[in-house]
Design goal:
- It is a single chain.
- This protein is of the alpha/beta class.
- 36% of the residues lie in helices and 16% in strands.
- The chain has ten helices and twelve strands.
Length: 326
């Protein structure tokens, strides 16, 4: 597995990471044993970039990743996040970015992960009630204290990124990005590249939709959070499925799968882009990693752009878009 740089402060990670969220919540039933085997296999295949957050579970995903880290902490770049408040009962308590909350969250995350420092620490969502300078100032203190190595933001707007970066270098911006979520192509990529900030693409397979695994909404388990997402509902689902069929046709012509082709497209967007497809199964992990071996030609990239043009997906990315791009 080749490496890519995130930011200009020295952080390097495998060119494909592993999103661990779905191992603990949101996407159907848990299977911790298979999830641990999936992380084992990822590391064996050269993936050294694991993505988690305190809110996943809630709180259980960091513990799961911590179990996987035992005996090989030096082989893995650990990224976690704070900012989305959850209760032990799973309730959602809004967004918090006060300096006090930052300090509280890092200590709790380190304890759950069972490690002494986090490699990449993100503000998961921007708290508009607290100046970003105060939040990032508190995060910078964690770097000085040795609890965090590099700082990141998630779903932040260009102006917010600039203000944050002026306080302390931001190494990575994590935002949803895929063939059907192209918003970063507007102002975000130019801003990040001007400032020397790496880009981490979450949901690079459209929360699994772009793999072609779902032919109808009922294919999703009753407890699956994706049922509440606009792109997975009603007429939107049927129309978006047409986009997937176009990807599948191009993938068949190349002798690969829709998932591999869609991930290869993300990888081709630049050496500063690192996708973190999530999975809790080894079979899907191994399929996803084949994207690193697939180099797309300019003609193939153009064909994908024509098959899934910007803004062609129907429905918002989230049921409530008020918490993103702030």
């Amino acid at each position: 597995m080749k490496k890519r740089k995130l930011g200009s402060q020295g952080l390097e990670v495998s060119e494909i990471g592993l999103g661990c969220m779905g191992m603990s919540e949101f996407y159907g039933a848990r299977d911790d044993d298979e999830s641990l085997r999936t992380i084992d296999r990822a590391i064996e295949l050269g993936v050294d970039f694991l993505d988690t957050a305190d809110m996943y579970g809630p709180f259980t995903n960091e513990k799961l990743v911590g179990r996987a880290l035992k005996g090989r902490r030096d082989r893995v770049v650990v990224a976690t996040k704070f900012g989305n408040v959850r209760g032990e009962d799973g309730s959602f308590g809004g967004i918090e970015g006060s300096p006090e909350y930052v300090r509280k969250c890092i200590d709790a995350s380190l304890a759950r992960l069972g490690i002494e420092h986090v490699d990449l620490y993100y503000q998961h969502r921007v708290d508009t009630k607290v100046p970003i300078e105060e939040t990032v100032g508190a995060m910078a203190e964690l770097v000085k204290a040795g609890k965090v190595s590099y700082l990141g933001l998630s779903e932040a707007a260009p102006a917010t990124i600039r203000r944050a970066h002026a306080v302390h270098p931001i190494s990575a911006l994590q935002t949803e990005y895929s063939l059907w979520s192209r918003e970063p192509d507007g102002e975000l990529f130019p801003t990040c590249r001007e400032l020397g900030i790496g880009f981490v693409a979450y949901s690079p397979l459209g929360r699994g939709f772009l793999t072609g695994a779902f032919k109808q909404a009922s294919d999703l388990p009753e407890s699956d959070r994706r049922r509440a997402f606009p792109r997975f509902q009603g007429e939107n689902f049927a129309k978006n499925l047409e986009l997937v069929r176009r990807i599948e046709a191009l993938a068949t012509a190349r002798g690969t799968s829709a998932a591999v082709l869609a991930l290869a497209w993300v990888l081709a967007r630049g050496r500063d882009v690192v996708p973190i497809p999530g999975t809790k199964r080894r079979t899907y992990l191994e399929e996803n990693l084949r994207a690193a071996e697939l180099e797309l030609t300019p003609a193939e990239l153009s064909a994908l752009d024509e098959a899934v043009p910007p803004n062609s997906a129907l429905g918002n990315r989230y049921p409530d878009m008020g918490h993103v791009n702030r």
